Amino acid sequence: MTAYEALTPDVIQEFFDIAGRRVVVGEAINPDYAHDAMPIYGIGMPEVTIDVKTTEEISAILKICSTHHIPVTVRGAGTGLAGGCTPVQGGVVLCTVLMNRILGYDEANRNVRVQPGVLLADLQKDAAAHGLFYPPDPGEKYATIGGNVSTNAGGMRSLKYGTTRDYVLALTVVLPSGEIIRLGSPVSKSSAGYSLLQLMVGSEGTLGIITEITLKLIAPPKCHCSLIVPFRTLEEAVRAVPALRHSEAVPQAIEFFEKEMLTAIEAYLGTSVFPKEIEGETVGAYLLVTLDAASNDLLDESVMTASQLLLDASAMDVLVADVPMYLDKTWAARSAFFESLEYQYNLIDQCDVVVPVAALPEFAVYVDGLRAALPFDVHMFGHAGDGNIHIYACTRGRRGSREDLFAFKQAAAAFMEQLYAKAAALDGQVSGEYGIGFGKASYLQKSLDPVQIRIMQGIKEVFDPGLILNPNKICY
Amino acid sequence: MTAYEALTPDVIQEFFDIAGRRVVVGEAINPDYAHDAMPIYGIGMPEVTIDVKTTEEISAILKICSTHHIPVTVRGAGTGLAGGCTPVQGGVVLCTVLMNRILGYDEANRNVRVQPGVLLADLQKDAAAHGLFYPPDPGEKYATIGGNVSTNAGGMRSLKYGTTRDYVLALTVVLPSGEIIRLGSPVSKSSAGYSLLQLMVGSEGTLGIITEITLKLIAPPKCHCSLIVPFRTLEEAVRAVPALRHSEAVPQAIEFFEKEMLTAIEAYLGTSVFPKEIEGETVGAYLLVTLDAASNDLLDESVMTASQLLLDASAMDVLVADVPMYLDKTWAARSAFFESLEYQYNLIDQCDVVVPVAALPEFAVYVDGLRAALPFDVHMFGHAGDGNIHIYACTRGRRGSREDLFAFKQAAAAFMEQLYAKAAALDGQVSGEYGIGFGKASYLQKSLDPVQIRIMQGIKEVFDPGLILNPNKICY
């Protein structure tokens, strides 16, 4: 582990000279800055936090940190789920939430320039007001775009429209040295040397700090609707996915979840949208499918195609949600899963593996089979169409009890080992969209051969020879 | 420049022990192995060529080359246009054309595994026979897939379907050390550390040797047709592009070319498909547009939308090519552009810049304005919808004349400088799809800031500390 230098009053004064009252030191620091949405992956209090505002300011701060060998961790809204912005080594946290301006649309080339602290929800809304569409749609709408780029966030619509990576045209990045580089440009394709742009996407703040992002936008789909599809069992639900994914209906999203999860969410939200039984038979699991099309007639065709396919695959029924209010309620339930788990449980661990879509049934059935022997609840849901499954180990525990925390962490870790091993056996990967951060670094190490880890470490050293950026994340 | 060791008889014997009669030495070497399709970017005779067959064989050869510090350049079909596979430092050339097996389809997950020497034409045909579609469609159909991945080849359909990068799910790669790594896996998305997969795509054989490729396939479009669209002038043709690109017709391809180019091609192919005048007025340039759709009715709608838009943008006419033979002839003409230039001229230089699509008219008009003062012919065509324009400087010269070659190279270089400067001013990039290779390395250096070049060099050293792989390409 690298040894860092302590922050001296002189260095802190330099920060004040740059960012004034946006520099916060010591006990005045907001404790939220010590972790992301998964504090179980570690809590690390920074010594200084700075709510940064400009590229130049970040450059000046990084120069100082490089000179004095002080660790720097960048954070956005802190909604990450892998401990990616936890300042494990203390030092400085740079928070980008004040860099929340949408800098401008280039309608002729269909793109938008944003600062990294813009919230996903705000960008989606603003793009829509310009008659344009930003397809990536992670569940957490109050994440920052900078965070989305840093983790290559996926979300509901990646099945049809791809992940954040597919929409990043250009980035302004400050290197740990303080040097400012611009990667990419608003062109449709490029073969101009190693793609540093693609390398930066998904690098979780370990290679440089992203200070401006140019995103591709597309025309919004003309119309869409969702299908609520109850099944008797989880297995039947996920078995229907591969054929639907590749069908002519070309779904935008295929989500799955179990009845228990749904019941908990609806209790939490105080709504009741999904049927719990069909003709006297109890529902065990659901698919939630979104279809879009260029016209209502085409949408009707897709609905017919998908419905027939689902009923043939033993769906109990297919309910079409096309009224906006009903659609909103349906998806609000889906988007609130994590929030509802946080509300129900004190202790949560998670796994976000991705497997080839045809292997999803085997994986889901395997996880289901482990449940009975586990000392905690297991909730399982996610982007079935992508083979990307979120598995949560959850228990109530006594709030603040170290014994409970320790016991849970141990049991959850053993469970995680099983999940990652099974995913690997199915040619899957450690994370589909949450990233590696601090919480999953050991599993990444195990899943890749040492040569790949060595190359990743080598790349890290090229960008950040002093290893000051976001220490102990991903591979270092 | 790195100093390499000479090949000794002992080392050559080691190669024979591995690959037997597929090792060729000295004067028996096929002189084609000394360059790609642009010999003007340098000719370098290898000392040994090996038509490799397996990953393990390549690993064993690279171990030897690493130990003895011998340069190794990999080549596929040699159809590159940037001098990417020219063995500038001599040494060993590994040719992958015998690694031409399609290893198998995974229809449930919609992908195919291929060896790197499979030809694009063969893969496209074979996938179609399996009811599947491999969208990337570079003009050169007899390029290898390995070459396509190494340059992130784009082609005709990248406007709608993306470039080769978007279809690479996994790669087996041999590092210069002989270590074998597998990058990626057949999953739809991933956020599992730095994307070495994306870094390898477009790295032109400088970071590792690709020995197996897993490619995503999609369902083929149900129907398609092309529009032949004559315009009075080049400027009018390219001005019609941005609106068409973003229209509801969602074109698969928007190509442009000038009348002179077309006439030369048709003379070369002995066909006549395109109209040369409309109602007594001479045609100056063409757009060639492909539309596809899920049904004939939808295709008709797209044709209507696109045609109206084009006629409003001063197209002289819109001819619909939907009969297979007519379609084939039309696209055969487009695909033969480079071949026809090679046939007409002895000396050729080229530039493959990409600019934001809305800047294409300004760029094309600028290039056209330079023509009159130049001592060679300039042909200009390309993927207008992508803002990716191929500009060829061509002259007949006396075959084999060193004076003519020298004078042409100088004049062409001055022209290239102007083109790259203009593209940069429009926020464009040095190469849209041909790659950097040897021919464009100096322009890449000028187009990027030194910090980015330093990072690329650092990455190269991480993968290839002895700098033995494909020396003097891209950034080293």
Name the features.
476 residues, 18 strands, five-stranded antiparallel beta sheet, alpha+beta, homodimer, 16 helices, seven-stranded antiparallel beta sheet, globular
Explain what the structure shows.
2 copies of one chain form a homodimer. Chain A is an alpha+beta fold and 476 residues long. Helices cover 35% and strands 20% of the residues of chain A. In chain A, α1 runs antiparallel to α2 and α9 crosses α12. The interface between A and B is large, with 78 and 78 residues.
Helix content of chain A: 25-40%
Poorly predicted runs of chain A: none
Mean pLDDT of chain A: 96
Structural class by secondary-structure content of chain A: alpha+beta
Detail the topology: elements first, then pairings:
The structure is a homodimer of 476-residue chains.
Chain A: H1 9-19, E1 23-25, E2 48-51, H2 55-68, E3 72-75, E4 92-95, E5 102-106, E6 111-114, H3 120-129, H4 145-151, H5 158-161, E7 168-174, E8 180-184, H6 196-200, E9 209-216, E10 223-231, H7 234-239, H8 241-245, E11 253-258, H9 259-269, E12 277-278, E13 281-282, E14 285-293, H10 296-312, E15 319-321, H11 324-335, H12 337-344, E16 347-351, H13 360-370, E17 377-383, E18 388-395, H14 402-425, H15 441-447, H16 450-463
Helix pairs in contact in A: 1-2, 9-12
